[in-house]
Design brief:
Order of helices and strands: HHHEEEE
Largest sheet: 4 strands, antiparallel
Structural class: alpha+beta
Strand order of the largest sheet: 1-2-3-4
Helix content: 40-55%
Strand content: 5-15%
């Protein structure tokens, strides 16, 4: 083995370590693309962006007690209707008022277009639509 081979192997190992460290702080397509670019160059960036986009868009479902609470919560007196379709993973419009779930502040809910939705309060991202 010559010195160049050892240097190249060390560089690959260092790049993969950096990629692992970055993957814990940046998620979704951007994180996957950055990680892929470090490890595999332009082709790695494309593949990493696709994989990261799919993995970053997965949302954990809320616990059953949160779903039960939202199902049984009284509807507000005023009906809320928006033009946009309510989609899991997308934020609710700013005009929609979200109500925190009392026993679990990681979740909030709203009733939009006659659908009860559970959202993440900070981002207003829809986590689940209750049918």
């Amino acid at each position: 083995m010559n010195i160049k081979s050892i240097g190249f192997a060390s560089g690959i190992l260092l790049a993969s370590t950096c990629a692992f460290a970055q993957s814990s702080t940046v998620t979704g397509a951007a994180g996957g693309a950055a990680t892929g670019a470090i490890v595999g160059g332009p082709v790695g960036a494309a593949v990493g962006g696709i994989v990261g986009g799919v993995a970053g868009s997965m949302i954990d479902p809320p616990p059953p007690k949160v779903v039960t609470y939202v199902e049984q919560a009284p509807a507000p007196a005023e009906r809320v209707v928006v033009r946009e379709k309510v989609v899991v993973g997308q934020p609710l419009p700013e005009t929609v008022v979200v109500t925190p779930v009392p026993d679990d502040p990681k979740y909030a809910y709203a009733i939009v277009n006659d659908q009860r939705v559970i959202v993440e309060p900070s981002s207003r991202k829809v986590i689940q639509v209750i049918q």
